[in-house]
Amino acid sequence: MKTVLCAMLVIPLCCLAESRVSSGNASARLNFRVTIPPVFRVLQSTPVEGGIDHRVWTNMKSIVINGTDYRFARVGEARLHLPASPRGDFIIHGL
Q1: Starting from the edge strand earliest in sequence, which strands make up the sheet with 62-65, in order?
Q2: Using one digit for the tens of pLDDT, what is the confidence trace for 14-53?
Q3: How many whole angstroms separate alpha carbon 88 and alpha carbon 8?
Q4: Cα 60 from chain centroid?
Q5: 70 bridge partner residues
C-alpha cells in the first residue's frame, strides 16, 4: 500500500515536467457545417369540392407549386389546399 501511495505522488511530477507554463501554446478551431436538404412529404390526400386537401410534412416555411407560393406558419405538419387544375397536372419547384 505504501508503494502505491509513493507511486501516486510521483505521477503528478511526471505530468508537470511535460506541461510547463509558457513552454508552448496550442490553439485549435473546430467548425461544423450541417446541410439539411429540403423535405416535402405528402402524408394524406383527400379530394374535396374544388381541389384536393393535403396533409403534408415539410422542413421549409414556404413552397412554390404551379407558380403559387404557399407559406406555412411553422416547420412540420401542415394542411395544404390545392385548387383543381384545369388540365389536372401540377408542377412543383424548389425541391
Answers
A1: 68-71, 62-65, 92-93
A2: 555 555 555 566 778 889 899 989 888 989 888 888 888 9
A3: 80
A4: 11
A5: 63
Provide the whole-model pTM: 0.53
Distance CA 89, CA 82 (A): 11
Q: What is the spatial distance between Cα 62 and Cα 70, in angstroms, rounded to a whole number?
A: 5
Cα separations in angstroms, 11 against 1, 2, 59, 81:
16, 15, 54, 71
d(CA 67, CA 93): 8
Using an 8 Å Cβ cutoff, are 56 and 77 in contact? yes
For residue 10, which amino acid is it?
V
Q: How far apart (Å, rounded) are the C-alpha atoms in residues 8 and 81?
A: 72
- 60: β partners: none
